[in-house]
């Protein structure tokens, strides 16, 4: 596996990233836990260390699976998760790129990922432009 530096962070990430959107079957398709684990293990055995997910991929199951899978080697994984998608209910602030939603999403993601706050690589799932994402990351 070859690695590259992620922006100006100094982090070395694998050129191949594992997208975990299909980890879980809550959307009527995707991978059950045992299959997701096989994919994850094969990626790690190949030297992969950069994993992408989002707070509402398979209603949070993707993050829960990843939290369990990387429990014993969390420090060697660079995990990117995203937020923005709306939470169930009628709260008008439960979606979007504002700080309140970002902080709620971070707290819930960290719980599902069985993680504590390091300096998360977190970005809005959708947004008007890159500069907006950078300002959200700095605000956190």
Can you describe what's shown?
By secondary structure, the chain is an alpha/beta fold. The chain has one domain (3-139): Alpha-Beta Barrel (TIM Barrel), CATH 3.20.20. Helices cover 33% and strands 16% of the residues. The chain has four helices and six strands, in the order βββαβαβαβα. It has helices at residues 33-45, 61-69, 99-112, 130-139, and strands at 3-5, 12-14, 17-19, 50-52, 78-83, 121-124. The strands form two sheets. Strands 3-4-5-6 form a four-stranded parallel β-sheet. It has a two-stranded antiparallel sheet with strand order 1-2. β5 (78-83), α3 (99-112) and β6 (121-124) form a beta-alpha-beta unit. The termini are far apart.
Q: Would you summarize the structure shown here?
A:
The chain has helices at residues 33-45, 61-69, 99-112, 130-139; strands spanning 3-5, 12-14, 17-19, 50-52, 78-83, 121-124. It has 140 residues and is of the alpha/beta class.
Structural class comes to alpha/beta
The sequence of SSEs as H and E is EEEHEHEHEH
Helix content: 25-40%
N→C terminal distance: 32 Å
What's the number of extended β-strand segments?
A: 6
Major beta sheet, strand line-up: 3-4-5-6
In the CATH hierarchy, the third-tier topology is known as TIM Barrel
Q: What are the segments in which pLDDT stays under 50 over at least 5 consecutive residues?
A: none
Based on the coordinates given, report the CATH architecture: Alpha-Beta Barrel
Shape: globular
Q: Give me the number of helical elements.
A: 4
What is the highest CATH level, the class? Alpha Beta
Largest sheet: 4 strands, parallel
Please give the domain count.
1
């Amino acid at each position: 596996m070859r690695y590259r530096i992620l922006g100006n962070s100094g982090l070395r990430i694998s050129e191949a990233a594992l997208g975990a959107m299909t980890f879980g079957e809550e959307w009527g398709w995707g991978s059950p836990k045992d299959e997701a684990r096989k994919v994850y293990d094969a990626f790690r055995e190949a030297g992969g260390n950069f994993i992408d997910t989002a707070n509402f991929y398979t209603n949070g199951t993707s993050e829960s699976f990843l939290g369990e899978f990387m429990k014993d080697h969390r420090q060697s994984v660079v995990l990117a998760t995203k937020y923005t998608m709306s939470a169930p209910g009628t709260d008008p602030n439960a979606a979007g790129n504002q700080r309140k939603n970002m902080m709620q999403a971070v707290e819930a993601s960290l719980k599902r990922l069985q993680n504590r706050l390091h300096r998360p690589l977190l970005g809005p799932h959708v947004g008007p432009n890159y500069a907006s994402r950078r300002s959200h990351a700095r605000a956190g």
